[in-house]
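Morning!

This is the sequence you dropped in the shared folder:
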Amino acid sequence: MVALRLTADELAALDARAAREHRSRSELIREAMFVARRLGVPTASIDPADASAHFGWLGAFIGHNNPASNTLTRERMKWTPTGPTLLQDLAGGHWFKD
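The structure's back. Tokens below.
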């Protein structure tokens, strides 16, 4: 079990992404934690007000909501994704060196 402390804005952004991608909040968090763990990247909870101080110039971008969707790609290319989910694919072992 992982405990996260998210602000109301962070939860809203997470829920918006989950709705856009037809996935759960939990699935998005598990993917992020999986990638961080496999890359050896430490995770920490940082107050949004402290993001610029912690991340430097990158902090200005981290707090922004940059929604993305594959809807246009699906429509224009008549594409329907198949195969494993992102988390299943990452867990397959071929993306990371052990």
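Headline: The mean pLDDT is 79.

More detail when I'm at my desk.
O.
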